[in-house]
Amino acid sequence: MAVIKKKKPSLTSLILGCYMTKKASRSEGEEKDAMKIRTSPLFKRLSLSDISDPSSPMSVMDDLSNSFTSQKLRLFTLSELRVVTQNFSRSNMLGEGGFGPVYKGFIDDKVKPGLEPQPVAVKALDLHGHQGHREWLAEIIFLGQLSNKHLVKLIGFCCEDEQRVLVYEYMARGSLENQLFRRNSVAMAWGIRMKIALGAAKGLAFLHGAEKPVIYRDFKTSNILLDSNYNAKLSDFGLAKDGPEGEHTHVTTRVMGTQGYAAPEYIMTGHLTTMNDVYSFGVVLLELITGKQSMDHTRTRREQSLVEWMRPMLRDHRKLERVIDPRLEGQYKSEAAQAAATLAYKCLSQNPKYRPTMTEVVKVLESIQEVETRERNGNKNEAKKFVDIKKCRHYRKGQRRVNIAYSDSLLYKESRAKQNNGV
Ligand SMILES: Nc1ncnc2c1ncn2[C@@H]1O[C@H](COP(=O)(O)OP(=O)(O)O)[C@@H](O)[C@H]1O
Ligand SMILES: [Mg+2]
Q1: Which domains does the chain have, with CATH numbers?
Q2: Name one Pfam family in it (predicted).
């Protein structure tokens, strides 16, 4: 059994604390609920791959014992979270993904001393689902250490017996999926769509540009959350992975992700690079432009995969009207729409070498926004200046394209049993 001696508990002690019996944790006589920054010149972000056997509490204990964390996370008990969510009431449910249901709640210092009053989202593990400790730990390890205005803030977590829960800042407008595809609602405006694309792109660019790059791996509309001002933040780091290090060009993994969003070369080979996220970004951008979901089995066979159906039309100016969401009814400037369509086309290149980096994507989206703002403010005489994605260093003119067969059917969410064979 782990005995925690430190006065100020660390990430390690908190995660390990999950495995202590309730009696033992109480006998410690101190509340193990706060993790403080331990600033050190030697700070290095802790990775899931640093843990030799994430399914073994003892191994987690050993590997995390010297780790540092950059955020202050709180440890909640299940009974505190029952109070917060009104006993995980169905009427408080915000959504549900592969991990389990997400409930709205409210925290303040009545729940726990020192808590700032605020609404929260509480994600509880579905004990009959395919995910578990590993995904829960991944969220804590990534979101507990990475901080950016385009990543959702993790406030704390809970771990009691088999139960695993995560507590996040509440995002008032929920997921992009709900906002964009909700039936019988007013169509989301073009300007808001581009703002969301830019925010989400900045989130990915931050992950890819980190000292130790992170591959998000599950970029899709249900994992992009929106605050009351439509600022986009990435949530759900359950599948995130550290990028390749040193000489390596990719990380090899089992294929995980979501049908309709994963890059063809990743489906074929399991080779994971930041370029896989760029492809998924292209899918989401295409969904924003068209207002259509990436996979829809109610569409005709030819139209089921949005990318297969629409990508060929993205480059053709004359076909633009057939591509863009008809509900937008000319809200957009056609040059801006064309620039966005060309960007999506590039991100969706079959060969990852032809895709732009996320930093380049951010530049193009910023230039689209600037031009539109200028036009709205009446400065129509100024020359339009979109960053030309064709000039991106990844565009290699004259090079022969490698044709990789694309098969959506190969993609699936792995069962937990398969994951245990080593991802
Ligand atoms: N912080 C939050 N604020 C508001 N809604 C949220 C929040 N987190 C999740 N949700 C809702 O719950 C859904 C599932 O959350 P997600 O983190 O993607 O879970 P999973 O890991 O199970 O896929 C989201 O698509 C969204 O609708
Ligand atoms: Mg999700």
Answers
A1: 48-169 (3.30.200.20), 174-374 (1.10.510.10)
A2: PK_Tyr_Ser-Thr
Cα gap 391→292, rounded to integer Å = 29
Q: Kind of pairing, strands 118-124 and 163-169?
A: antiparallel
CB 361 within 8 A of CB 201: yes
- Predicted pLDDT at 68: 45
- Cα of 64 to ligand 2 centre, how many Å? 26
Nearest CA to ligand 1 atom 6: 174
What residues act catalytically? 218
Mutation pick for ligand 1 pocket among 225, 234, 256 (CB with most ligand atoms within 8 Å): 225
On whether the CB atoms of residues 172 and 228 are closer than 8 A, the answer is yes
pLDDT tens digits, one per residue of 107-135: 999 999 999 999 999 999 999 998 888 89
Does this model's pTM top 0.90? My answer is no
Q: Is the CB of 124 under 6 A from ligand 1?
A: no
